[in-house]
Specification:
The complex is a heterodimer of chains A (about 100) and B (about 325). Chain A is an alpha+beta fold. Chain A has two helices and three strands, in the order ββαβα. A three-stranded antiparallel sheet of chain A has the order 2-1-3, covered by helices on one side. The relative contact order of chain A is 0.17. In chain B, about 40% of the residues are buried. Classes of the chains: A alpha+beta (about 100), B mainly alpha (about 325). Chains A and B meet through β2 and α1 of A and α4, α5, α7 and α13 of B.
Chain lengths: ~100, ~325
């Protein structure tokens, strides 16, 4: 057994110019450079990407499922933030 | 399948009313087709069963490289060799997606690999058969990957988010594997009589083990009910097996080769092919470690892991040194 496992990295790929990087999965690598090389081999074998971001999993802070309600509930009662809240008369165009 | 006879720890199904509130909420979420994500509460048995199932699936992808790797140096043309290398590389990738999905359940990669090497964790029975001729590479792509697709497409809808997402990636790539296998067999079947005989011989040896891949008959499959309820098993062993037979027999007809089953016959009434009895004793023997290549496969995996240890350590030492130097410069 080796003394320590390679750290875990989260991989984000930009699939085309103009789109945002999207999380595609994770892999183990000793450092950022190797993480990018491994990500190239694992996640872009069929031209899936034009750019790769790698982030150490341990550096990601995430909201927890338990605080879902206090975190997202305030948005539920504010339906007026959606344009559909304001019905427009048919004769009014381009709005 | 790639995961066979996965133990759920359940003796019988519990009624929704009898469950503790947390578990009931969990089951209702699954019933409503809402995915479970790593940080969500889950019953311990669900977590453990998934680790077994996903890791067994991952080990199958990794051990599955060995029978095919056997032919990389002897592929009949440079193009076939390139294609086979691409396929084997895909299998490594599939293993990796799956290990990563299993790790989200709180188990380390080293533990998973350790369980494979100690024999505690299983991998699919099918990879314990030898690849004797080039036609076997065709038969594996056509039959084994074909059977895998049959199982993996429904798993894209399974209840555990990371597993479902890994399956989506795998399925996108798997179709290439099946087609390249069929393409190998088409070439052989249109070739000389000796080449066609080689294709027939491969089908003779791989047909029954391919049907065994789907696992024991439903009547003997003790853990299926719990797995189905958790939506980590979508279709039953027998349903998948029947679909596979129905799909594959016309393809063999096209190739002009025949399944080694005298009882195989279209049943107009059922709208399915009937087929002969499967020797499940053979499946149990192979799963227990007594197939033709079990020892060799495990030995090869363990040697690869041990021989690569110094590389893993050196890469880590290099990374630590670089990080220390960078910290020094920054100070």
């Amino acid at each position: 057994m080796s003394r320590s496992e390679w750290p875990l990295w989260e991989i984000f790929i930009r699939s085309q110019h103009g789109l945002a990087h999207k999380h595609v999965g994770s892999l183990h690598a000793p450092d950022a450079q190797m993480a990018i090389r491994n990500a190239r081999d694992v996640y872009t074998r069929r031209n899936e990407g034009v750019s790769i971001w790698v982030v150490m999993s341990s550096d990601i802070a995430a909201s927890s499922p338990g605080e879902k309600e206090p975190l997202f509930e305030p948005a539920n009662s504010k339906v007026y933030r959606h344009p559909t809240f304001f019905p427009m008369p048919d004769e009014v165009k381009h709005i | 399948m790639y995961a066979q006879m996965v133990d759920t720890g359940a003796k019988r199904l519990q009624a929704l009313e009898d469950m503790p509130p947390e578990e009931r909420a969990f089951q209702e979420r699954i019933d409503a087709d809402i995915k479970i994500e790593p940080k969500d509460w889950m019953p311990e048995a669900y977590r453990k069963t998934l680790i077994r199932q996903i890791s067994q699936h991952a080990h199958s992808e990794v051990v599955g490289m060995l029978p095919e790797g056997n032919w990389i140096t002897r592929a009949p043309s440079l193009q076939r060799k390139s294609i086979l290398m691409a396929k084997v590389q895909d299998e490594a990738g599939h293993g990796l997606y799956l290990y990563a999905a299993a790790e989200t359940l709180g188990v380390s990669r080293d533990e998973l690999v350790g369980d494979l090497h100690s024999g505690k964790a299983k991998y699919s029975s099918i990879f314990n058969y030898p690849t004797l001729t080039w036609a076997d590479i065709g038969a594996i792509g056509w039959l084994v990957d074909g059977a895998a697709i049959m199982n993996q497409i429904p798993l894209c809808r399974c209840s555990y988010g990371p597993y479902a997402r890994a399956m989506v990636r795998v399925c996108k790539e798997e179709s290439f594997h099946q087609r390249q296998g069929f393409d190998i067999l088409m070439k052989l079947c249109k070739g000389s009589p000796a080449q066609k005989a080689m294709a027939q011989d491969a089908l003779n040896r791989w047909w029954w083990p391919s049907l065994m891949m789907f696992g024991p008959p439903d009547a003997d499959s003790v853990h299926s009910a719990q797995s189905a309820r958790w939506k980590i098993k979508i279709l039953s062993n027998d349903e998948l097996r029947q679909r596979f037979v129905d799909q594959t027999v016309p393809q063999a007809d096209y190739l002009g080769i025949t399944m080694p089953d005298p009882l195989l016959k279209w049943n107009e009434g059922r709208g399915h092919y009937d087929f002969g009895p499967i020797d499940f004793e053979e499946l149990y023997r192979v799963v227990k470690g007594h197939g033709p290549c079990n020892r060799e496969r495990l030995r090869t995996r363990v040697a690869a892991w041990e021989d690569g240890e110094w590389v893993r350590e050196a890469a880590m030492a290099h990374a630590e040194k670089q990080a220390a130097r960078a910290a020094c410069r920054a100070a």
